[in-house]
Amino acid sequence: MENVLSFNSSFSYNINAGSIKSKEKKGVLTDYNNNGSNINYKHNHSLSDSEKSNKPPLPPPVSLDSDDVNNLNNKSLADLRGSVLLKFKEFIDYTQNITQNQKWKTQVNKDREIEKKLNAEIKECEEKTRVLGQTLAKEATQIEEAQKTNIDLQHQVQTLIDRKTNFQSQVQTLEKELQKLQAFKSAQKQAIQMQFSRNESELQLYKDTLKMKLVGLQTDNILVSFKCISDHDSEREYSFLVDVTESQYKNRTAGRIPEQNTSVFFVPEKDPESVSRTLQK
């Protein structure tokens, strides 16, 4: 008689000895005792197709020889039931570990995909950071150059402001000097006008009494002629060459007007009064 104890996905065992009988049913372990009543052991675990395809192979069936069968028959039914339940529990733990491992593998694959995406995003961020760093370095160089240019421009502006201030100071100084000069010229002009008014009456007296006239002008000399000086000859003409350098008048000559010297003087076409006004200016 062949006595075989085997384990598969439905966990069945066949023992053909004495009054102990067993039969296989998918998902149900049935044990018959001596009284004919049966005891069913069920488990609710069922594997999916992917789990079945990925699960590792089960260990090979265990064969029992005749001595083992005799020893098994000699054991009590309670010991046999305990041994079967222990092996069944080990099988359940084994299948649960396989299922858990499959779940872990699936989760690990998902985590790896997430890790790949995160690594890609990290590389992209690193590249953006590198480009941004180059841009910031370039902008920092441009800012430094702009600051240098700004400093140069501020220096130029300050130089122009200083020059403007200096120029305004010079202009104010010149304006003050001009005002002083204008005041001096105005006073001088008033003095000249007063002197001219006094000299004009005296000149008219000379014209009426001595028939005085201005013959000609030279750079610093005035040629003046008079009559009515000699008691014997009232028409006799006398000439004077007056030096007007630095307002110090000197009588350089006296006597008749030399004919040969009259050509060196400019004889104005206007009357002596206009010549006198020209000299006063």
Automatic annotation (TrEMBL):
Residues 218-250 form the Chromosome segregation protein Spc25 C-terminal domain. GO terms for cellular component: Ndc80 complex; nucleus. Component of the NDC80 complex. Acts as a component of the essential kinetochore-associated NDC80 complex, which is required for chromosome segregation and spindle checkpoint activity. It is found in: Nucleus; Chromosome, Centromere, Kinetochore. Its main location: nucleus. It holds the Pfam family Spindle_Spc25. Residues 108-191 form a coiled coil. Belongs to the SPC25 family. The lineage of its organism: Eukaryota, Fungi, Fungi incertae sedis, Mucoromycota, Glomeromycotina. Keywords: Cell cycle, Cell division, Centromere, Chromosome, Coiled coil, Kinetochore, Mitosis, Nucleus. It comes from Ambispora gerdemannii. This is Kinetochore protein SPC25. GO terms for biological process: cell division; chromosome segregation. Residues 39-69 are annotated as: Disordered. InterPro entries: Spc25_C.
